[in-house]
Amino acid sequence: MTVKDLASILKQNNNFEILTHNYPDGDCLGCGYGLCLALRQIGKNANVITTDMPKNFSFITDKAEPQDFEPEFIVSTDVADTKLLGKNEDKYKGRIDMCIDHHGSNTIEAQYRYVDSEAAAAGEIIFELIKELGAEITVDIANCLYTALSTDTGCFCYVNTTSRTLRIAADLLDLGCDSAYINKVMFETKTKRRIELERDILDKMIFCADDKCAMIYTTCEMVEGMGDDETEGIASIPRQIEGVKLGITIREKQGGEYKVSARTNGDVDACAFCAQFGGGGHIGAAGCTIKGTLESTIEMLRKAAEKTL
Amino acid sequence: MTVKDLASILKQNNNFEILTHNYPDGDCLGCGYGLCLALRQIGKNANVITTDMPKNFSFITDKAEPQDFEPEFIVSTDVADTKLLGKNEDKYKGRIDMCIDHHGSNTIEAQYRYVDSEAAAAGEIIFELIKELGAEITVDIANCLYTALSTDTGCFCYVNTTSRTLRIAADLLDLGCDSAYINKVMFETKTKRRIELERDILDKMIFCADDKCAMIYTTCEMVEGMGDDETEGIASIPRQIEGVKLGITIREKQGGEYKVSARTNGDVDACAFCAQFGGGGHIGAAGCTIKGTLESTIEMLRKAAEKTL
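YS: structure for the whole thing
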């Protein structure tokens, strides 16, 4: 299956629903809305289906008001597993026709599957796909795709960034995307509450495995009333510290569940680390969910980190 | 004067000294060492002349051990004014043969001048120049130039980034530059001490003018023993806060002097703000020095901020 094949199948169908993962980020929203706008441009009906939306993506989501139609063809973008559909899992499980993703660990069963784990962002695939559809990359679409690329690469700073990523970003700049606005909103603006949270997190940071592992956590109380957009990116804090090879972020969720993100600089396999707890992801960034108390979760992770490092 | 002209003049000369500005950053070091390596490759003698070197650029500077020769031709890269030569000003003032820069405000007099203020980094010019010289862009040169581009654009996040910047960066990745290492050293590594300093700064942050101004400060005690590279970038902290139009950073220096940096998003004129205290700079970033105590400095700035906003 090539990107050209994907385009040809999309052209033969109509009435699309495009699924994004829960707590959507810039990549899945940029992909979903970019593809939606392109499909509408070539005369199709299309909607993006989201859940648990953060607040700061209105510059993307405002550009595609929902349309009224009977859905016939379901596409997922940047969704590695149907579990990540959140509230929409039951409705769409087993019903996805086309799966487009860049997570090597993708488990979604679909008639048409395209997974390119070399792509830093799923947005790179969608960029090629929109060109193959013969749609024009308008400024609105360019903004969607630039958001996809820049957010999944930490503004082209993470190791997943390739020359292809940079060349597509260059094309998007030439096509008029408002990178200044997007970078300001995505990377340079923090709320007062966020600043307070960072201070709080730094106060409580835990080092282990001879300081080669740094762990931070947030409790429900610490982030009460904060949107996901306000707490995004904290997972990169522990890994930034000199000498730290494994940065772990623990987020308390309702019901005694702890969402764990592991970040490494590639020397340590974050995916293998999280697989011990039933999770997965990439070598440099992975996640898992652990049930228990905050203390027991920290202890489990500390032991695993000391064994790994 | 075109980049081709610069190359042809360099080819006709030999025994080069390449000047960088004081407290050199990634752009001037990347340009200086990149050009030096390229000149040596085509059979010339060349040295880079630096002063006040920070610690974390050894991966660049180690690649060109000083050569012994009688200098004949002086090139400056990324130096906007001879004052910025620091200790080397007296020696080189009026003696620069070729000036290559991207600061529109460049005041250097030289027989051959090439100033391209559209270039996000002077490294963009040096990239073209090395190609015109007919030198191969080796991995070492690619590392120099990637460092130049990425540091002057905040890893391609600042508004100065253009599609040309991104395309050159893509070429450098294809030429084998170690962007992962460079980004890690330049953007992602914070010492434990730095993390503690940030926490300390956030604890003591002051808001005024209806939260439209945020002020942070460091005392000599807070930064004791820390290098400039460890405290770099803290001036961007207050401006990042949502709603803050004027971000002020106060640094205690020896002898009852306080160095003040003002940062704005362009709505407020940082230069006019600092001019009240005998300072200056750009609309978005300016500075001044105030004598007194920490308390009196904060009070003066608070009153000025409340009047301005």
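YS: worth flagging: The radius of gyration of chain A is 19 Å.
IM: good catch. Also Chain A touches chain B at residues 154-159, 161-164, 166-167, 169-171, 173-174, 179-180, 183-184, 187-192, 195-196, 198-199, 202-203, 205, 211, 236, 239-243, 265-266 (CB under 8 Å).
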